[in-house]
Amino acid sequence: MDGLERDLEGQAQVLRLSVLDDVGGQLAMRYGVRGVPTFVLLDGAGDVVLSQGGMPDRDAIQMTVARLLEE
Questions:
Q1: What is the per-residue pLDDT across 4-56, written as a single tens digit (0 to 9) for each?
Q2: How far apart are the first and last CA of the chain?
Q3: Which phi-psi region, left, alpha or beta, contains residue 19 (left: φ > 0; alpha: ψ -120 to 50)?
Q4: SS3 string of 26-40?
Q5: What are the Cα distances from residue 11, in Å, to 6, 14, 38, 50, 65?
Q6: DSSP output for the chain
Q7: What are phi and psi of 32, to 5 degrees?
Q8: For labeling, which of 8, 24, 39, 46 is most exposed (least CB within 10 Å)?
């Protein structure tokens, strides 16, 4: 995750949340998180554009962020 944060610096805001915290737990329910880790990518309107359970696919995330920045 650290490498992904560095790769996306200046392009996207990366937040790490714990499902054990109040806010993290509420967001996990809102976005249907069923396992940990889960990566959820939102667009500027707050809509889910990518959701991945398990280890994040860095290439897919970077490509999706790049596509969103082009729009």
A1: 889 999 999 999 999 999 999 999 999 999 999 999 999 999 999 999 999 99
A2: 25
A3: alpha
A4: HHHHHCCCCCCCEEE
A5: 10, 10, 20, 16, 8
A6: -HHHHHHHTTT-------TTSHHHHHHHHHTT--SSSEEEEE-TTS-EEEEEESS--HHHHHHHHHHHHH-
A7: 70, 35
A8: 46
